[in-house]
Design a protein that fits this description.
Elements (H helix, E strand, L loop, with lengths): L6 H17 L4 H18 L5 H12 L2 H17 L4
Helix pairs in contact: 1-4, 2-3, 2-4
C-alpha cells in the first residue's frame, strides 16, 4: 500500500518527514520550502489516489506560485495541528 492511497496515511507520512527535517535542524522557512517542493512534485508527477488529493491537485494547478506556497504551508500547519509532527 502506498502512502498516497489514504489521505490520513499521507498526512502521517508528511508529518514524519517534516518532523525529521526539523530534528535535523532545518528552519521553518526550509521546512516550508520543502513542503512546497513536495506539493509541486506531487501535482506534476504523481497520479492521484483519492478525492482529497484530486482537490489539492486542482487547487495547486490553478494557484499562482505564491498561492502554492500558501497551500504547502497550510498542509504543514494541518499535520502540526493533528499531532502528526
Amino acid at each position: 500500500m502506498s502512502v498516497l492511497d489514504n489521505f490520513d496515511t499521507w498526512k502521517d507520512f508528511l508529518g514524519d518527514r517534516l518532523n525529521q527535517a526539523q530534528q535535523e535542524g532545518l528552519s521553518e522557512r526550509a521546512v516550508s520550502e520543502l513542503a512546497y517542493e513536495i506539493g509541486d512534485y506531487l501535482a506534476k508527477q504523481v497520479e492521484v489516489k483519492n478525492d482529497q488529493e484530486a482537490v489539492l491537485r486542482e487547487l495547486w494547478n490553478v494557484a499562482s506560485e505564491e498561492e502554492q506556497h500558501t497551500i504547502a504551508n497550510m498542509m504543514v500547519k494541518l499535520v502540526k495541528s493533528e499531532g502528526s509532527m
